[in-house]
Design a protein that fits this description.
The protein is α/β, with parallel strands linked by helices and 259 residues long. α1 packs antiparallel against α2 and α2 runs parallel beside α4. The strands form two sheets. Strands 5-4-3-7-6 form a five-stranded mixed sheet, with no helix packed on it. Strands 1-2 form a two-stranded parallel sheet. It has three domains: 92 residues, no CATH class; 71 residues, Transcription elongation factor, GreA/GreB, N-terminal domain (Helix Hairpins, Orthogonal Bundle), CATH 1.10.287; 80 residues, Chitinase A, domain 3, CATH 3.10.50.30.
Length: 259
């Protein structure tokens, strides 16, 4: 039902924007009037019922339809829809940060599983192995001149630091979902087609999760310095970046979602 209502609002906007010289314009205006009456009936009861059934992604789409320039809706209808949305989906009205700067680490489910497996190996294989090495080295006596013991202690410190860092990163991880991005701008989970300016060859790059990079395949972590230059950019924008040894200017010719 929520999807049908979204389609209805889009239709109303198209009806309101019909050119003045369009055929059957009077009929279109009458149809728009009937749809407006339908929405306002029973003190906008239909709107409230629809909003209570919306998912998070549908609520976001509805917010964009109403908060933008929807000529098919009256000002009162817009206010009613926004009020119902604010009550049902208050999170939709919280100012959102871009994914590449909101403090979370986005990745695929597979990337997260690999990272968690690496952390498990550190904690249950490498650290116990290092502890055993420390014990063996200590048994050799005279710790002041025991380089094996000192080396094992240094390795312990490296393992502890790495484990601490990875635990913190995994605690901030989020599996990237399709409804988190729009594809209208460069973001994690998008691919771009780039043209070396001016009039150069085309190349494709994908900006993937933090633990999904494979540069040989053209997959770059969205947190990599080269990727951050592209985040938030749109088709037609030009960005200076270094995919090879030298820096070049690239024009973004296309953006697509890849999740």
């Amino acid at each position: 039902m929520a999807v049908d209502a979204l389609t209805l609002l889009e239709l109303m906007n198209r009806l309101a924007r019909a050119p003045k010289h369009a055929e059957r314009r009077d009929e279109l205006r009458q149809a728009l009037g009937k749809l407006r009456n339908l929405l306002s009936a029973g003190e906008y009861r239909l709107i409230r019922e629809v909003v209570t059934q919306t998912t998070t992604s549908e609520a976001h789409r509805l917010h964009l339809l109403v908060g933008g320039n929807n000529d098919g809706l009256t000002a009162e209808a817009c206010q009613e829809i926004l009020a119902a949305l604010r009550e049902q989906h208050p999170e939709e009205f919280v100012e959102k940060k871009n994914l590449w700067e909101d403090g979370f680490i986005y990745t695929s489910a597979e990337g997260l599983a690999r990272r968690q497996a690496e952390l498990e190996r550190l904690m249950h294989v490498e650290i116990p192995r290092n502890a055993e090495a420390i014990g063996k080295a200590a048994s050799l006596g005279d710790l002041r001149e025991n380089w094996e013991y000192k080396s094992a202690l240094e390795e312990r410190d490296r393992l502890v630091e790495r484990t601490t860092r990875m635990r913190e990163e995994v605690s901030r991880a989020k599996v990237l979902q399709p409804d988190m991005i729009s594809g209208d701008e460069v973001n994690v989970g998008t691919a771009v087609v780039l043209r070396a300016a001016p009039g150069g060859a085309l190349r494709r790059a994908r900006f993937v999760g933090a633990w999904d990079a494979d540069i040989g395949k053209g997959d770059y972590s969205y947190l990599a310095p080269i990727s951050l230059r592209f985040m938030g950019r749109k088709v037609g924008d030009r960005v200076r970046a270094s995919f090879e040894e030298t820096e070049s200017e690239y024009e973004i010719t296309a953006i697509e979602k890849v999740i």
